[in-house]
Prior knowledge:
Two copies of one chain form a homodimer.
Chain A: H1 2-6, H2 12-44, H3 48-60, H4 66-72, H5 80-89, E1 93-97, E2 105-109, H6 111-131, H7 137-157
Antiparallel strand pairs in A: 1-2
Amino acid sequence: MPEKHLTAPPAAADKNISVSNWLRLVRVYNLMCKELRSRLKEQSGCTLPQFDVLAQLHRFGRGMTFVELSRELLVTSGNLTGIVDRLTAMGHVTRQPDQRDRRVIRVVLTPGGADLMEQLLPRHSADLEDLLHALSAADQQALQRVLGKLRVSLQSVG
Amino acid sequence: MPEKHLTAPPAAADKNISVSNWLRLVRVYNLMCKELRSRLKEQSGCTLPQFDVLAQLHRFGRGMTFVELSRELLVTSGNLTGIVDRLTAMGHVTRQPDQRDRRVIRVVLTPGGADLMEQLLPRHSADLEDLLHALSAADQQALQRVLGKLRVSLQSVG
């Protein structure tokens, strides 16, 4: 029954490819973070988690609560209060009471923080394009498709 | 000159695919870490960085110096001394002077630590296989190929 053979459970070789892919993904993630971290530091003096907070605030526009921020952050949230304190000291964000419920605090970009992001975001896109330059259009599309499939599957696990 | 058009610099759509792929990679990495973290905790009481140290020690066999360990770790090294202290308290590792140069300290697995890894590594492989189950063999091969290419390219940047 050759059909049965074709749908047999993954053999040792397939098990190894999952481990291999995870190790490659971790290495690529770490190498990308290292490179983005150093470019970002040079461009703005910001760390990756600081940039992540600024990027979410820029994306959402009208300020975010700490709960909303921690839900949206890409990089590990770590000490979010400390990151926001530091960004406040740098003049990029400020804490404001919510207009409808003044007990709720929203973190908002200052005009200077918004200007900074207008400068940084195109450079960040260009940096990512540069870091992925080795991939052909077909490679990029394959990566997008496979990672998209994996993300959907993993979101249903959690 | 249609040929020229075909090899033109990446347009806006291609720039966006780099950003999209980075965001997908970060999400997948975080979702995988979250899931592996909780499974590992349940299986062994270990954190991901602790498991990472144990896995490297298991792979190298005859103990590693702190410098060797920090070079090989997959997850952020963070506070390596603290991780090794905690693993020592758990009875999984011990510090030993190097046999040739007693000023050098090597971290080695205890027999109990080695037994633990013999149990954990197959479960970790099975967990990875499970987390990547949504990918077909062709998807896995595409991911392996594209991430491999990207890893080589990024290693030459750093």
